[in-house]
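Why should sequence recovery work at all? Because a backbone constrains its sequence more than one might expect. Tight turns favour small or flexible residues, buried strands favour hydrophobic ones, and helices have their own preferences. The token representation captures these environments compactly. In the example below, the structure is given first.
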């Protein structure tokens, strides 16, 4: 008799254990399926960002390479209409800046401007691939799933909010108003960015505290342009200054003046004068 009760008791325990195991197995399997879905969603988000970045770069090229502001504005607006997820961010920023470029182009001999550079989103860490062997893994998978959801939410916010750069307006040391798109730190232009002046000129390059600082290129509305080093918002270091007629100066600069070794080239590329310069004047001429 006792053996029968014992057998029944053991059988009941076995059924309960089996039921609990099945429950956790089912839950764990469901969590794994959700994890796989999260992985797919992450990949889709990354692909969406890549496609959007390529499309926007192609539209940007209409401005940078061809001065087609009207065509670029139309393309941005069409893209804005089909991609509501990016509403209020980089597309609006590009549309706003393109409109400013159109206003500047209404003045004679105004150049085009590059709008912005894409900064990269943080990459997602690889999700753990856990097999449903033990009940304890249920809690582990739950934690991984919640972490994955948080990362996807963060990525979605970045995709909606994080554009190629932030937009600022400020005045330079000469009093010209600048419309800036690029990297920002402490509320100022720091890092790489593009600025369009109200004079129609533009600067593309490195910044420090709202000043041109590092390598960059400055284009005047009359066709002159400089490519080289800047320091404290002035041409300083090695750089090349080009004139519309083909002439150029290659050499050292300090405080916006030719200072140090340098050479002046004519329209055909021949050296017209070379030597040591001081305050924009050739003071020591190199012998032929």
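From this structural description, the recovered sequence reads:
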């Amino acid at each position: 008799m006792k053996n029968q009760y014992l057998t029944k008791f053991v059988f009941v325990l076995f059924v309960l254990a089996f039921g609990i195991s099945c429950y956790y197995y089912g839950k764990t399997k469901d969590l794994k399926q959700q994890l796989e879905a999260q992985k797919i969603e992450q990949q889709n988000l990354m692909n969406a960002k890549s496609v959007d970045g390529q499309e926007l770069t192609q539209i940007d090229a209409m401005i940078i390479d061809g001065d087609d502001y009207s065509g670029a504005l139309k393309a941005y607006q069409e893209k804005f209409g089909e991609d509501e997820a990016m509403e209020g961010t980089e597309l609006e920023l590009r549309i706003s800046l393109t409109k400013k470029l159109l206003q500047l182009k209404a003045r004679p001999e105004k150049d085009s401007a590059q709008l912005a550079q894409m900064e990269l989103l943080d990459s997602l860490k690889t999700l753990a691939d856990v097999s449903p062997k033990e009940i304890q893994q249920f809690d582990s998978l739950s934690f991984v799933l919640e972490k994955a959801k948080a990362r996807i939410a963060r990525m979605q916010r970045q995709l909606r909010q994080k554009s190629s750069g932030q937009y600022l307006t400020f005045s330079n040391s000469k009093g010209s108003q600048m419309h800036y798109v690029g990297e920002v730190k402490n509320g100022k232009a720091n890092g790489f960015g593009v600025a369009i002046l109200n004079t129609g000129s533009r600067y593309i390059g490195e910044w420090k505290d709202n000043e041109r600082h590092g390598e960059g290129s400055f284009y005047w509305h009359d066709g002159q342009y400089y490519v080289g080093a800047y320091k404290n918002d002035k041409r300083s270091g090695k750089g090349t200054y080009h004139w519309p007629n083909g002439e150029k100066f290659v050499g050292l600069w300090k405080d916006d003046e030719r200072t140090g070794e340098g050479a002046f080239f004519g329209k055909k590329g021949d050296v017209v004068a070379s030597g040591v310069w001081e305050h924009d004047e050739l003071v020591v001429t190199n012998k032929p």
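A few observations help interpret the result. The helical segments are 2-64, 69-82, 90-105, 137-161.
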